[in-house]
Amino acid sequence: MKSDPHPFADTHLRKRHRRARWFKNLTLFAIGLSISFLFYFLTDMVVKGLPAFQQTYIKVTIHYTTQSQSNPFAALDKSYRKIISRAWYRALPQQMAVNPALLNTQAEVWALADDQVDQYLKGHYHNLKPKERTLVDHLQAKGEVVLKFNALFFSHSDSKIPEFAGLKSAMVGSVLTLFITMVLAFPLGVMTAVYLEEFAIDNRWTQFIEININNLAAIPSILFGLLGLAIFINLFGLPRSSALVGGLTLALMTLPIIIVSARAALRSIPDSIRQAGYGLGLSKLQVVQDHVLPLAFPGILTGSIIGLAHAMGETAPLIIIGMIAFIPDSPDSFTQAATVMPAQIFTWAGMPERAYIEKTAAAIMVLLGVLLSFNGLAIYLRKKFAVKW
Amino acid sequence: MKFSKKTTLCVLTTAILWAYNVQAREQIRIVGSSTVYPFSSAVAEELGATSKVPTPVVESTGTGGGMKLFCQGDGLDTPDIVNASRRMQNKEFDLCQKNGVTNITEVMIGFDGIVFAQNKANGEFNVTKEQLLLAVAEEVPSKDGQSLVKNPYKFWHEIDPALPKREIIIYGPPKSSGTRDAFEEMVLKEQTKHMDIYSKLYEQDKEKNKAYKEYSNIRTDGIYVPSGENDNIIVQKLSKNKVAFGVFGYSFLLENQDQLNGTTVSGVAATPETISDGSYPISRSLFFYIKNTHEQEVPSLKAYVDLFMSENIIGQEGTLTEIGLIPLPDDKRASVRESVSQRTKLSRENLSQ
Q1: Alpha carbon of B57 to those of A167, A303, B25, B31: distances in Å?
Q2: Which of B29, B48, B77 has its CB closest to that of A237?
Q3: pTM for this one?
Q4: Within this chain, do residues B294 and B317 fall inside the same structural domain, yes or no?
Q5: Domain ends where: B251, B266, B283?
């Protein structure tokens, strides 16, 4: 047997290095795979969704006559019947009722085009008849058909007429619902965390509570919907589909997340801060309120914002309490029927009309944008207020 | 810190007070079938857009779920209308009666065809209802016709040599769906009810073989693929998989003519005409039910029903036909309109007709 030339030489060195490289490549592959999935999803969304931010308009001459007051289709030339949106026609009689001076006048306006024309112009599948297609081509050559920024998408709410459908009521609903959630879950969650972390004695009872809170944070969200239905709607008699009930239900759901993250933030405050406080003769309340809590605040805020972002993207519990519904009037109080952005996406995804595909993707882009800015805000706050020990 | 806590408290109290201030209801509440939902919400939107009435809230809960909510009680916190992709069942009617919902009017609005469609790349394909049964049932009659065996068919030509040699893959609705109920009812139950082999087994042991009375079990060996409530998913799958067939509502075929191709069932293609006159064999009627006692407190209810019944909406050229509703034949429409205008009270006898 040959003895080692050097007592510290590692005969397995090459093998060890190879294994290290292999492991590194494996981790790299994992992140590469996730990024490519994300990239695929985002490109797909953007490619499908971007066209929705533009909408076709057609220049028309309206004839305000007594006949068009009862039958709005008479206001335009007959050939425009199929290429102008029914939503646009529908609004004419009311427009005339509000403004009687319009009678027997003419006006040139840009009218909202039918979704089939819109899809045709965007190069998607459409079912325009050849006659209508030549008309659209002809008008386009004259510059009387244009794609404009789709302001309707943000100023109008859900509609069964695809070209007229927008996100407004869903956005308002989301704001109202999240407001209730925030107002309820944030103080309750923080207070619970402060109690458990700063005041409670470590005994079986608090351990039991702790296990339950951790468990609740992992419960499928649909169960919170059932809970919300049983308590808020059936027991308290609060109005179904309202932002109030939605907010309360989502608050139940976010509460454990906020408690867990707030506790972690409180725990990260070094004990020396508390001891210094006591050393100066401060009471427990003073220590918690003036020192521990302010120092832990950035962490608590970050956790809460992430919890809210989570609540914002939630649909499952809202199905049960009736917020996944056709609600085109945007709510102006907490008790009116409301829907939220993810619910709107869910509804549009199930519609047969092809024009809803781009609307769905565009709504997803808006929602992702909002969530991204929420998370961005959380990161900013953490960076800005974080204290290094 | 102190300040923000105080504000939060104030806001919370205001929010709760606000909640209790609101009482009477102007807005109509509609629940029920996801098949009727697009039609119902289109009318709701029309009502909201052309009058001063607030737009009714339409929830898609499924027919069964909607009935449960509707029959919960007569109070204003219950829905005014329930949409249904089938008739109200006797047990639902009884539940309604028990809870004091006694004054109901039934409205039939039209038909919905269930299509059996495939990728456009394929040529024409014709199946009979019996072949369809043999393709989807969990247990089918054996070759000698003496007993029931686990469905052995993997290719269409095994069912009938006249059919092409093509693998059987069917994307269809899952158990929770109303379309699935209707498909089971019309393709499975209606046939197995009259097939000796199934009824013989039922006669042998009525307790144990209860399922064979009207056999409706769909195979679970991966050949029938339940594909989620959203019919668009089935459309997408068919656009990728050229061999497969899909089972879904007619309006989805109408919107995807560029990718899909309907099959003929017993030689009849699904068109508005064949569905309306009943010659296309897989179609169902759509309904909604009105809680008449709410008409006093929810004044816009009458406006909604009137608008719904108008020729502009459910007529041959109406708004709803544009989005896929198959209208009732003219005389049937007239009689429904008549019965609705008088708010004919629904009775148990009506339902069993």
Answers
A1: 16, 35, 12, 8
A2: B77
A3: 0.84
A4: yes
A5: B283
